[in-house]
Amino acid sequence: MGEFDKIIKQNIEAIFLPLVERLLGIKISHAVALSEKIQTTIEREPDFLKKVIDQYQQEFILHLEFQSTDEAKMVYRMAEYKAILQRKYEMPVRQYVIYLGIKQPKMRTELMDDEAITGFQMKNIHNLPVNELLESEVPEEIILSILTDYPAADSELVIQKIIVSLQKTTNDEATLKRYIQQLLILSRLRKLDKKTENQINKMPITYDIENDYLFNKGIKEGMEQKTDQMILDMLEDRSLTLEMIAKFSRTSIKYVEQLRDSKSTF
Whole domain around residue 72: which residue ranges? Predict the structure, then answer.
């Protein structure tokens, strides 16, 4: 999980209701928390899996399952297989269940309309009016103002207003510093970290940016991500050995192998 995602995850409980209403247009009257961890591994392997080219020169993944029982939830298992296969191979997947039972099977072969995985809706936080979030009394929501829509010329004024609003809505210095940390990190998404740093230094806040753990940690993680991407790109070049990649990236052969193996897994 990236540093930006971590901030949202930390603040989601506070911003959940207002964000859902503002961004999605959904007014929630009742909500029940579910487990955030989702099992993504499948313990059993597909019965038959091949990359094939048919008589029409169409290339695809052929997935066969041999089923001896009339499993009512088979349609969900096949949908799960397909999602993982498409993510791994990025090509069309054709699936067939070969039924081996005696009685005529009654299992569903298609998801219902409200179950079908056809995509998702996209909502851009950039489309939220900046003034609505700036006027909020929820600090976690005020911080999101840095990501909304406003003219580039007004960015310093927006940052000033965010800091002032955070001061008004927090009761102690430790909490304010935590929100300032988050603001600094989120501002990098809009390339406003320098302006944010300047505004923090101008405002009457006791805050040491140079020794900020999250700020420096974010810089370090950003550099590590660039190194990882460079290694992954070099792994695509079959002419480069693991030793050469490790030398070029100033990492170890073991680290390169770990990245290579993680890329090849589901």
Answer: 48-99
